[in-house]
Design brief:
8 helices, IS1634_transpos, transposase activity, alpha+beta, DNA binding, 269 residues, elongated
Length: 269
């Protein structure tokens, strides 16, 4: 059911509650008519309340024919704000569980990962997405607080899960790994121990930046990452990175693939 405004020849407006069944519209109730906009809006509110009050009266005890009719009536009465998007959860959620990320004891991690895959925009837009499509009400500050927990508490677990999944995908043996770095700059001037102005490949020499180092297996399956200060020299990050994660994951001596800026003579020897 829905609310319809019908203009009359007299200039007044009738407010009706209308249903649609088998392509045929039917007036369920005429709420009233008015000429002034405030009164029209009041009648529309009354009509919406009637529709809302009628919803709990829907019964699901019916035979096959009645089931089709009832289902049609229910679908016809739905509004956009009553629709939940379940596709991302059905697809990405199943992959999330299969990899093993459901071991992370915080439901917000699941929401943020799936939202990032389905709707990869800002944190503020992520809050809007979760409220609109998942019914999850969050403040942006809650996401920032969770990111602190992720870095302080959950990062080792997340990396361990990712590594175990990559290992399974590689037949339980990781013989080739790929390492690369990228710079992430900040539109600000203040520096700290991590955010520092340094060499920028994109010409942002006056902006502080950080370096992100990423280690992946064959076919791009992730293994681990680390963050380095913006003034770091890329070539000096490779060996400490590999040593740290080789000990942690018992990688052995895999073939390392990287660009020429990282594979200096000192690193190769």
């Amino acid at each position: 059911m829905f609310v319809r405004e019908k203009k009359n020849k007299s200039g007044s407006v009738s407010i009706q509650i209308v249903s649609k069944e088998n392509g045929i519209y039917k007036v369920v109730k005429s709420v009233g008519c008015a000429t002034e906009r405030p009164e029209i809006e009041r009648l529309k509110d009354e009509a919406r309340q009637f529709i809302e009050d009628a919803k709990p009266q829907l019964s699901f005890a019916f035979d096959a024919y009645e089931e089709d009719q009832q289902a049609l009536a229910i679908v016809s009465s739905l509004q956009n704000n009553q629709v939940q998007v379940i596709g991302p959860e059905l697809i990405f959620g199943r992959i999330y569980d299969a990899i093993g990320f459901n071991q992370v004891p915080d439901e917000l991690f699941r929401h943020l990962v799936i939202a990032r895959l389905a709707y990869p925009l800002s944190k503020l837009k992520t809050v809007d997405y979760l409220l609109k499509y998942r019914g999850v009400k969050l403040e942006v500050s809650a996401i920032y607080r969770f990111l602190d927990r992720l870095a302080d508490q959950y990062q080792p677990l997340v990396e361990q899960i990712a590594f175990e999944h990559t290992k399974r995908m590689q037949g339980d043996q990781i013989s080739v790994i790929f390492y690369d770095m990228t710079a992430l700059h900040f539109e600000a001037e203040d520096e700290d121990d991590l955010r520092q102005a340094g060499f920028s490949k994109v010409g942002k020499h006056r902006h502080p930046q950080i370096y992100l180092g990423l280690l992946v297996g064959a076919n791009g399956f992730p293994i681990a990452y680390d963050i380095f200060a913006g003034k770091s020299y890329e070539g000096h990050t490779l060996i400490p990175f590999l040593e740290r994660f080789s000990q942690r994951f018992n990688l052995g001596k895999p073939v390392v693939v990287a660009d020429s800026g990282l594979l200096t003579k000192r690193n190769i020897v």
